[in-house]
Amino acid sequence: MIQMKVISKRFGQINPLSIDSYIKAEGYEALKKAVAMHPSKIIDEIEISKIRGRGGAGFPAYIKLRALSNETGNKYIVCNADEGEPGNFKDRMIMENDPHAILEGMVIMAYATGSTQGYIYIRGEYQNAMNIFKKTIKAAEECGYLGKNILDKGFDFNVEVRSGAGSYVCGEEFSMIESIEGKPGRSRTKPPFPTEKGIHNRPTLINNVETFANFPHIVLNGGKKFAEIGTPSSTGTKLISLSGNVKNKGLYEVPFGTSIRDVIFKLGKGLENNRSIKMVQLGGASGPIIPEYMLDMSIDFDRFENFDSKTGTGAIIVIDDRFDIFDILLINMKFFVHQSCGKCTPCREGHVQIVNLLNKFISHRATEKDLMSLENLAYVIQQTSLCGLGQTSMTSIISSLRYFRDDYFAKVRY
Ligand SMILES: Cc1cc2nc3c(=O)[nH]c(=O)nc-3n(C[C@H](O)[C@H](O)[C@H](O)COP(=O)(O)O)c2cc1C
Ligand code: SF4
User: Fold this and answer.
1) Shortest CA distance to 334 belongs to which of 316, 357, 314, 315?
2) Whose Cα sits closest to atom 2 in ligand 1?
3) I want to staple 30 with a disulfide (CB 3.0 to 4.6 A). Which of 132, 162, 216, 270 is the partner?
4) What tens digit of pLDDT does each residue of 353-370 get?
5) Judging by beta carbons within 10 Å of its beta carbon (0-12, 13-18, 19+), is residue 228 exposed, middle or buried?
6) Residue 309's pLDDT is what?
7) Do 208 and 102 reside in the same domain of the chain?
8) For residue 12, is it within any domain?
9) pLDDT at 139 over 80
10) Is 207 in a helix, a strand, or coil?
11) pLDDT one-digit tens code per residue, 267-277
12) Could you tell me if the CB of 348 is within 6 A of ligand 2?
């Protein structure tokens, strides 16, 4: 069995617009269990589960939860549904197929941390998900799972839908906080982290859609059971957005530890027209590009850490042998030129220079000195940019220089 349905188990089985349909499928049982527990015990279960955030970086969820619960006064919970990373569509699928699971996860964590206000920040292009989620909130309020005096337990929690306007950087937590506050989406320097000073300088928890959707499952079945799925360092399952030149593109849920090759060949049924793989990009535009011989690598946060990127989002983009690495790198880098917010110089100017250098390779005008400049500049952008956009945007360049260096030499003018 390659697929394992935990997050996607209700997909296609329930009517996402009907709260009754969700309730009949164990919906809100985890919340009922949670409100009978001491809040700190809920966070203990999350720690035992060893779940790591599904937004990309794989940060242990319990650390942020405990930090928030230790704060007093007004606190905020934010669900990051911006999903701007090209190649990813898993969060949209959860919102469109099982929206109450996300909301239930948010309410449980509001109770666990003592937070009273929540936001779900949905990518502007996701109009359908936005409409569904507004109805989800209304239905949950009417049934007493959200709003004032939830389940008669004397705690209040409200959720509002907020939306970005297509800016990729608004998925980055501080840019999102600024945007929720009504300002242009631009990052702030860290520390302080959002759990100390987030929305209106108050402690704020930000987690990804898939992370929130996992919480009810953990509370209902216990952290220990969850930790038995996957690998010791990456527990649970992962939703994979499989796209590119593969026959069966789509969303798959697999336990961590599954190999990339199995996802492409067993679930994706291999490449179209019997072509061969030139490269695979993991995570999205800010993820690494790897060659075919690395496909036996398992899907695991620790394995992906070597790449210093948001590989953990779970996107796998297959690119066949009709393409050149420069085709893909140029698309990625033009994307970052467009998405840079312009606040810091390495990112604002650096991406433009990277595009210029790539164009020199493409037109066979590059020299060995240009190769050195490209490599140096990529590390400068990675190490000196203010926020995660510039800190991860060079992953495809750096990985291609490592695994496809001969492709660069083939274009150098001697
Ligand atoms: C440029 C940029 C874009 C990001 N976009 C998203 C996004 O669309 N969705 C998301 O969940 N996290 C995104 N992140 C990561 C968030 O900043 C944050 O780490 C994440 O939402 C935390 O949730 P998690 O702990 O559940 O993974 C982005 C980060 C950067 C630097
Ligand atoms: S790294 Fe880029 S997106 Fe981030 S603050 Fe600097 S200019 Fe803006």
Assistant:
1) 357
2) 172
3) 216
4) 999 999 999 999 999 999
5) exposed
6) 65
7) yes
8) no
9) yes
10) strand
11) 999 999 989 99
12) yes
